[in-house]
Each structure stands twice: as C-alpha cells, then as structure tokens.
C-alpha cells in the first residue's frame, strides 16, 4: 500500500474468503485507495478479482478480515450507506438496464433511496449530462448502441453520487470511438476509481497506479507504466501487452 495517502476511500485489510464448496479465492488481501485515485486491478482469470470487488459493497461477505469505505466498515448495519458510496458498473450493461426508458433506469436507484420530484429529476439530468447521454433520456435502452448502453450504465451508478466507482472490464466490446469517449468521461469524474481490466493499454491510459491480484493475493502494487514494463513480472502472472505496444508511449 506504499504511496497511498490519507484520506482513504477504501481500505481492505487481511481479507480472506472461501466459497461454500471450499474453494479459497482470497488469501489475506491488503489494499488501500486514497480519495480520488484511479487504480487498475489486473490479474489472470481466476485470480480472485471478482470476489474482491463483490466484497466492496457487501454482495459477498462472511470471510475473514475487514473492508472499510470512507472509514465505515462494510457490514450489515452500514449496508445501505455502503451501497450508495460504492457503485459497481458490470461488464454487460444489460445486467443493469431493465426499465422502459433511459431516464427511468437512471432514476431507479435514487428513487429507491427516497428521492422524489424535482430533486430526482435534477439527479437524473446531472448523471446523464456527465456521460453525454442527456438527449437519449426518453429512448428505450435496448435501442441504443452497446457503447451508449455502457455510458447509461455508468450514469445509473453516478446518479447515486458514489464515492467509489468500480468498473468491470469497461472497454470490452467497445469500438475505438466509444472507447475514447468513455475514457474521457472517466477522466472527468471526481470519484475514486477501481478499474478491473485485461485491457492493459486502457489501464495505462487511465490509471496512474496498478495492482496485480494473482492466486488470491496482491502480487504487485506500483505505478502502472513501471509495472507493465516489468516483462518478467507480467509473464509470471499471465499478463501480456499487445504486440509492439510500448508502455512508455501513452501520455496521461
């Protein structure tokens, strides 16, 4: 956790977790993110990345160790506040979009939290504006392109005004223009970002810091460019840059 300074948005300490079938997914993970940091979570398939992410807002629990969000322990007594503070954008936007219109999808979370009337409308407008989708408010989500649906999925989370935004493979299945547009949106946000990705150039473009999770433990935690330039480290954790890609070539 070297280089992380207070105040902390997220603090994971000695987190261990086994599934009911006995599979041990995490073996004592320590991770801290300072407020406003953008950090990439890298690792091979089966490393425990999804298991870790699902502990951050209490979808999974019952393991050993602690998770704190802005100082609040992730436990049953704080669950409503934790789920407001930690927003997860899943890889498939269709897992998050289920209402007849974009506006209703974005309003769903705040409305369930008790927001009504003009305050709810303002929250929806603000979230759609941040992702450049205001003009699509009355459109059915299934009529949008994949990239547009992903931006709406981000808006549904931003409407809750989270402190931490967790993104699962945000660049997957996006065309180059949509990929760039989403990167511009993510750079503009004033939230802490944890980005789970196999897209290493995207991680380099957006996240100054990267963490490798491998076999349920943190195997490396360093500036992204430094980490990606370590060929031996990368190979040992089944991480591979596109052919010919220079980790020093991306300017942020």
TrEMBL record:
Gene3D superfamilies: P-loop containing nucleotide triphosphate hydrolases. Pfam families: ABC_tran. PANTHER family: ENERGY-COUPLING FACTOR TRANSPORTER ATP-BINDING PROTEIN ECFA1 (PTHR43553:SF24), HEAVY METAL TRANSPORTER (PTHR43553). This is ABC transporter ATP-binding protein. Its main location: membrane. Belongs to the ABC transporter superfamily. Keywords: ATP-binding, Cell membrane, Membrane, Nucleotide-binding, Translocase, Transport. Probably part of an ABC transporter complex. Responsible for energy coupling to the transport system. It comes from the Bacteria. Residues 10-240 form the ABC transporter domain. GO terms for molecular function: ATP binding. It is found in: Cell membrane. The keyword Nucleotide-binding applies. It is a peripheral membrane protein.
